[in-house]
Structure to design on (250 residues):
C-alpha cells in the first residue's frame, strides 16, 4: 500500500487527486475513530468512480462498527451502480480479500450480520469479511436475490471443495466419487470441485478402475481418466510388436 521511501502525510482527503492513489487508500485503511471522517469523504465524491472507491474502501478496511454505521450509505452507492460497475467492484473486493491482510478487529467478529445492507452490498461485505455461508446472518429477501444468492452458492461450493479428498489415497477418492455419482443428477461435479480434484494426476490403478466402470463415476472423473490414459499411452515400437507376434518377413 506504500511505495518504499514514501512518507504518508498526517491527513489526506480521499479524493485529492494531487496525492498518490495508494497513499490515499492507505490513509483510509489506517484511519481510526468513528464514521464521521468517512461521511465527510463521501460528501466530496463527484463521480461514479469516486463512489465505487469510497464504498470499496469502507467495505474492505473500515472497522466493524463503522461498517455497520455506514450500511445505508454503502447500500445507496452500490445499488446505484450499473451491472458492469457492480461486477467490477465485486471483483476488486474479492481480489483484495484474497490477497491482502485482514483487520485484527474483524477477526474478532464471530458472525457477520449483513441484514442492514441491501442484497448487493451484503454480498460485498460478506466477501470482504471472508464469511462462509454458515457464518453470515442474512434475510430471506437477500437470499433470494441474484447477487447475494450467488455469494451463498460460491461459499457452499468452497465448503464442498474443502471437503473433497485428495488423490493421495485413490481408494478414498474413488469411494467418494461413487457416492457423488449416485447422489448427483447427471453424475456431474461442480466446476470448482472438479478443478480442485484434478489439480493432481490420477494413479494408473485409479485410471484403470474408472475406465472399467465408467457408469459408477461422475462424468468429469471419467473424462479425466481418459485424458490421463491417453497422455500416458506410448505405442510399442514396430520391432517389439513383430517379435511378440512372431512376424515372418518374406
Amino acid at each position: 500500500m506504500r511505495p518504499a521511501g514514501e512518507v504518508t502525510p498526517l491527513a489526506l482527503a480521499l479524493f485529492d487527486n494531487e496525492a498518490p492513489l495508494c497513499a490515499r487508500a492507505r490513509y483510509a485503511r489506517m484511519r481510526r475513530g468513528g464514521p464521521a471522517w468517512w461521511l465527510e469523504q463521501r460528501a466530496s465524491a463527484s463521480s461514479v468512480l469516486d463512489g465505487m472507491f469510497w464504498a470499496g474502501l469502507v467495505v474492505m478496511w473500515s472497522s466493524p462498527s463503522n461498517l455497520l454505521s455506514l450500511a445505508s450509505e454503502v447500500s445507496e452507492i452500490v445499488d446505484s451502480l450499473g451491472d458492469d460497475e457492480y461486477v467490477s467492484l465485486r471483483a476488486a473486493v474479492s481480489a483484495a480479500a484474497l490477497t491482502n491482510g485482514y483487520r485484527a478487529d474483524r477477526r474478532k467478529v464471530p458472525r457477520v450480520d449483513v441484514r442492514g445492507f441491501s442484497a448487493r452490498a451484503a454480498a460485498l461485505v460478506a466477501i470482504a469479511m471472508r464469511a462462509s455461508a454458515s457464518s453470515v446472518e442474512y434475510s430471506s429477501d437477500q437470499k433470494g436475490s441474484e447477487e447475494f444468492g450467488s455469494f451463498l452458492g460460491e461459499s457452499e461450493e468452497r465448503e464442498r471443495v474443502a471437503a473433497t479428498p485428495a488423490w493421495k489415497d485413490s481408494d478414498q477418492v474413488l469411494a467418494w466419487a461413487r457416492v457423488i455419482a449416485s447422489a448427483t443428477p447427471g453424475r456431474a461435479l461442480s466446476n470448482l470441485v472438479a478443478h480442485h480434484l484434478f489439480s493432481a494426476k490420477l494413479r494408473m490403478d485409479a485410471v484403470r478402475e474408472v475406465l472399467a466402470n465408467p457408469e459408477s463415476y461422475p462424468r468429469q472423473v471419467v473424462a479425466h481418466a481418459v485424458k490421463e490414459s491417453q497422455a500416458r499411452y506410448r505405442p510399442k515400437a514396430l520391432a517389439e510388436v513383430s517379435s511378440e507376434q512372431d512376424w515372418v518377413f518374406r
Notes: The chain is about 60% helix and 0% strand. The chain has two domains: 21-161, 164-232.
